[in-house]
Amino acid sequence: MRKVLCGAGIFLFLFLGIWSVAVQAAAVPSIQLWINGNKVRPEVPPQLLNSRTLVPVYTVQEGMGMKVDWDAKARKVTVTDGSKKVELTIGSKTARVNGTAKKLDVAPVIIGNRTFLPFRAVGELLGVEVGWEDKTKSVIVNAPVRFQVNGQAVSAKVYRQNDSYFVTARQIAPAIGYTITQQSGKAVFSKGEDSKILSSDTYKIIDNELAVPLSFVEELTGGSGAWNQGKTVYTLNKLITPPPPKKPEVIKVTDIQQTDDIITIRTDKKAQTKDFTMSGPPRIVVDVQNAKLAVVTPSIAGQEKHPAVQEVRYSQFDPETVRVVVVLAGSAKYNLVQKTSGIELQLKDIAYPQPPAPAPPITEPPAPAPPITEPPVMTPGDSTSAQPNPVPSPGPLSLKEKVKVVVDAGHGGKDMGAIGNNAREKDLTLAISQRLADNLRADAKFDAILTRDSELDRQLTERGVKQELSEKVKIANDNGADLFISIHINSSTSAAGKGTETYYYSEKSKEYAATVHKYLVQATGFGDRKMKTANFYVIKNTKMPAILIEIGFISNPTEAREMMKEEFQQRVADAVYAGIKEYVEKN
Ligand SMILES: [Zn+2]
Questions:
Q1: Is residue 488 part of a domain?
Q2: To pair with 456 at 20 to 30 A between CA atoms, which of 107, 247, 367, 371?
Q3: Helix H or strand E segment including 15
Q4: The CATH number of the domain where 548 resides is what?
Q5: How much distance in Å is there from the Cα of 488 to the middle of ligand 1?
Q6: Which residues form the catalytic set?
Q7: What is the pLDDT of residues 499-543, one digit of tens each?
Q8: Can you tell me the distance from the alpha carbon of 26 to that of 17, in angstroms, rounded to the nearest whole number?
Q9: How remote is the CA of residue 503 from the centroid of ligand 1, in Å?
Q10: pLDDT of 231-252, one tens digit each?
Q11: Is the same domain home to 22 and 116?
Q12: 402: in domain
């Protein structure tokens, strides 16, 4: 076939007789020429010369909208494209681009009254994109396209055929986060688990490079590209999987402080907050976003509050929010000021009830918050008022050879009691109960029975059951105990809830309660929440004088930390022992 074509070509240009026989060019009609997306059929088709494909310069210029001048005398073609001027002289390997000499591999030749150049040189000189698709024997020439992905320039080449654009995959794939593998007859685009396959009839190989349809790239990214008006810049903006937004760093709330009318929420880094007010009582709520409560020693516990502030509470409101609640004694407006060390809540326009002129008698401040989890169980249907225990009291304790004390470590088994500040109530009550029992056993006057030890607790926990209150009562009653004490740790919704309290049920337990409470409050130093009566199951149903002590608040970081210390536990055990001993000596 080739021979026949060559012969026809030679015949053709001999017939036209324009150029010398020294040029052995051959017209190759099967070569397609695409200019700016249009398939053009020049009067004189592309030529093959010394293995180079030559294209008629004028066709390219026309197709690209450039201006062409022909100086017959100087045998010179001048192509002007905006500010760019390219001068070609027939037979000369030197071209001039804006006056600067440029060496050519092949001198321009005239074939069929037209100037021909290898298409590569056309691309280089005129600054246009050129490519060769071997499969279809096509020369593709079009205006260069600047490709941008998410604002970043990508050095991909873009070729056009009709209204289809093909972009070189080697550059575009990494720009949109894909890797390419070429297998027989297909190209695979992969991104993690995701892969898309292109068959060979949908992509092109241009200049030995894989070029894929722009529509496919848009499909991969889920974005739609946009052209500028002159179709010289293509911008791809909306990627289907943009890089995941950086998760904001967790903020630690390290302290809550109060200085006069400023409440400071200390954070380890700059924090975002939401704030709002509530009424009844008036409260200012500040939610620190994406924050974890990491208060070790809250400064506010020991700080004087402004008279307009009744209480400042704080808690891990939800896994991502630390909530600070300022309960007002009166009314106030406020500003929230972001500082590097934290957030300042500055009260202003403060109005609160002024104390009367004569100093009022010193009274106990109101308890910060009512306990919520303590004590455990009320007997249904009973009032909380003290009632006489139906069982008659035994003889004087002071005359007894042995006083039998049942020490109940609150909760047990799967019943953990209150939990907070990395502590569990059932562990703290057991530790203190064991120390109290040891103290009593060391005294010849006493015998101590624990309702629970660590081995029983382990067994109950393993079985997934709690220690029933009825079991605790049964131990005391069946053993004919002289005294009963149930040891508990309090809890509150507010971290500020604090103090020590002692419960009793019947009047005959009141003195016992008072004596132990006196020692206990002194030992804890947590503040006196006083003695109270309640119909808790264990103090109501035990037949001997019985009390229930709430040593401190597990929800209060300071108290929880103290209660976890062995020396504190021993001090409390010593105090309760001293109280029991004094009570026994007087009765
Ligand atoms: Zn308890």
A1: yes
A2: 371
A3: helix 2-16
A4: 3.40.630.40
A5: 4
A6: 550
A7: 999 999 999 999 999 999 999 999 999 999 999 998 889 999 999
A8: 14
A9: 12
A10: 788 888 765 554 555 667 889 9
A11: yes
A12: yes
